[in-house]
Model the fold of this input.
Amino acid sequence: MIVRQIPVGPMKNLDYLVMDETSMEAIVVDSGWETGPVVAAAKAGGMRVRYVVATHGHFDHVETIAELAGKLGAQTVAHESSELKTDLRVRGGDTLTLGGARVSVIHTPGHTQDSICLYDGKNLFTGDTLFIGNCGRTDLPGGSTSELFHSLHAVLMALPGETMIYPGHDYGDVRSRRLGEEAKLNPTLLARNLREFTGVE
Done:
């Protein structure tokens, strides 16, 4: 899979284009604040975008989702618990198909109840669930510290260490990192229990 990381907007958001090289079919992960950079990158890469996926419903990730999908001729996608109006509703364990490639939906509540990550077998698009060096906050409506701890430690940390993490914001010292390396550096992943996690979150 080819991954294009696209900075957008004033809050250091990162959108993604993920394309199957054989079919040239692609998905967009989050829409962010502006459509221009994503549309330009998709056209420059000769991509046929099938889906625009919301990792969660916060405005800085979905402000332009319908507009972007319209410009790309794509379907909008969100978790079944999302308040967004989308073409497709997904739950954990579902897959999105790009040519012969599959992208798995992983439900990771904690930052929000509708938070999902997308995993293509090598790359993990984490939205606001996991950042480089930190994790998403849980003090906004729908947030849960205990659920986020479970999502990080029981769900994401079960993936292979060579998995490349691509977060929803450029908040770290790098824009992507392998999960195994992140597990040795990120205080929220080093926390051994919920009490320790609460202290570093």
Q: What stands out?
A: The mean pLDDT is 96. The domain at 2-200 is CATH 3.60.15.10 (Metallo-beta-lactamase; Chain A). Residues 145-155 form the longest helix (11 residues).
